[in-house]
Design a protein that fits this description.
two-stranded antiparallel ribbon, two-stranded antiparallel sheet, globular, mainly alpha
């Protein structure tokens, strides 16, 4: 019983420790860049939603990115779903576990869930999506520098190409893809920006409200200080 309690208490710490040595590349900031976020939504729908849903997000929420209902319907919905529906997928969790060995996770909140002492969730995703390399010892033929022995295949390999791990433990592009490396990095940055937006669509509003509250408190502090001086001016 004591052993079980010890495992339950320290399992989270061991999980964090397993990622302690990972170097994360800084993800470019795409917040507020509507064309980039629109492109990220397109990449997500075309390359990710075959296996991963975003079941806490509705298609019509993408209006905040400058898209109309007609644009969403014609360009981002490839099923019988309606614009007001959740961005869920048809694959059942049990089927995903049978096919991939583990159920592909929902990605609505992944940018928040992957935040750690090493960097933000966006940094982790940016490193992960650029860190696939060929590994014939893995069932899928792929491995990843940010997620060792990952079960997910490289869904964007045709765009990036095929990387291999060099003798110096650095990635080398062995087979070029359809995009140049800088073009692929930009595409990944757009995708990560969209994933970050999905994890907290009101983030910019929250930040603006926070700044407004702090400015309001600063003004109130001035009046409170002046009032205090008026009350205490005759006290020595």
């Amino acid at each position: 019983m004591k052993k079980l309690i010890f495992i339950l208490l320290f399992a989270p710490l061991l999980a964090f420790a397993s990622d302690a040595g990972i170097h994360l590349d800084k993800a470019p900031d795409r917040s507020g860049n509507l064309p980039a976020l629109q492109n990220g939504a397109k990449v997500f729908v075309n390359y990710c939603m075959g296996c991963h849903g975003a079941s806490f997000m509705r298609y019509n929420r993408l209006q905040e990115l400058g898209l109309s209902d007609e644009q969403i319907k014609n360009n981002l919905i490839f099923s019988e779903a309606k614009v007001g529906d959740l961005m869920s997928i048809a694959m059942r969790p049990a089927e995903g576990k049978l096919w991939f060995g583990a159920t592909p996770p929902d990605l609505t909140l992944v940018a928040r869930a992957r935040a750690s002492e090493n960097g933000t969730g966006a940094d982790w995703l940016y490193t992960y999506l650029r860190g696939f390399y060929r590994d014939e010892t893995r069932p899928t033929g792929w491995n990843n520098v940010a997620f060792d022995n990952v079960g997910m295949p490289h869904a964007l390999w045709e765009l990036q190409g095929q990387q291999v791990m060099g003798e110096d433990h650095k990635l080398v592009l062995a087979v070029p893809g359809t995009l140049q490396p800088e073009e692929y990095d930009a595409l990944v940055a757009d995708l990560v920006g969209f994933l970050q937006y999905m994890s907290e669509p009101v983030a910019r509003t929250r930040q603006n409200v926070g700044i407004g509250v702090l400015l309001g408190l600063a003004v109130l502090f001035v009046f409170a200080y002046l009032l205090k001086r008026e009350y205490w001016k005759d006290v020595h």
